[in-house]
Fold:
Amino acid sequence: MPNERERRQKRSRLPSRREAAEKIKAPIPDAQVSGDENSAACAAADLVVLTIPFEGHAALLKQIKPVIRPDAIVVDATVPLAASVGGRATRTLGIWQGSAAQETAEILPKVAVVAAFQNIAADLLNGDGPVECDVIVCSDDANAAQSVRMLAARIPGVRAIDGGKLENARILEQITALLIGLNIRHKGHSGIRITGLPDQAYNS
Amino acid sequence: MPNERERRQKRSRLPSRREAAEKIKAPIPDAQVSGDENSAACAAADLVVLTIPFEGHAALLKQIKPVIRPDAIVVDATVPLAASVGGRATRTLGIWQGSAAQETAEILPKVAVVAAFQNIAADLLNGDGPVECDVIVCSDDANAAQSVRMLAARIPGVRAIDGGKLENARILEQITALLIGLNIRHKGHSGIRITGLPDQAYNS
Structure:
């Protein structure tokens, strides 16, 4: 049961979420966008994308667990940066399950968890520049992974690649820390491209 | 002191190393290539590149430690694949020091250790196809790192990038396991390109 402080926080966040939705809709009037409180949003969604700081990861999952639909796909883009506990954004924490995405699969054992989108700079996804980044998609659920690859491939500049089992998410999460280090050192918005695979490995 | 079995092994390996050197020289007659036993080769070298399976990593370092020149640069391309201990080549071992390259720095505290070249497929470096791979170079010795970046940038198709401190080698080593998984799944010779950095971040 949420206590009074949590209820107050939820009420105060709701208008800003609705404002954020309006901001997204402004340049794309046809877009279906709405802002809502996490539990309500998850209860209504068949695809949930987690793009949260790692310090809120486990708590959020426990919050949405009772309401998330059993046939939902949960896409986890969370990276356990050491910055979550006062360390550096160029380093990661060791996660007992192997990765943040595998922690998600442990907390939500009934849903299909897909790891993806860790390596795209949020600034670029928000339209600040061209996206030049492959999205490697890892999951133990082949159908869910394919749905997410199809979704990712619709982002201009993105190629989606099957990265195998969810356990490989640990490497995708590490790569983000490397890219953050490159961004700091070289002042850029770095991403990765995978070279040397046959054409059918991309966007299929 | 090497025992009789080790002495026999050394003698038996030496001709094949000299044959390998001749094989490399065949298409590039001007190349200076020679094959030699590890300790002798290291004693004569100002730059040593380790491209060995991880199971032989610590033992080799201890073997060459007494003879390696204190002003030498040691470039470590070793990846601690779980295959080294009977596991999968798509998984890595946890290394106490953080990475194979950091283990090298611990065993050889007096030399400059540089982590690089983990992510280029050996087949491509051997001339089996075009190299399309950025080489991220990590070291705590800025001068040694720059020398290795200059060397890497001379390989056609390679762009060398400063990846910061040696501790980041752990991420480069993980990436190799991911690429091996992609090669198995998609039948390719995968590599990585880093996008989104300013021009001066490459080959400088």
About this structure: DSSP finds seven helices and six strands in chain B. Strands of chain B lie at 47-50, 73-76, 112-115, 133-139, 158-162, 191-195.
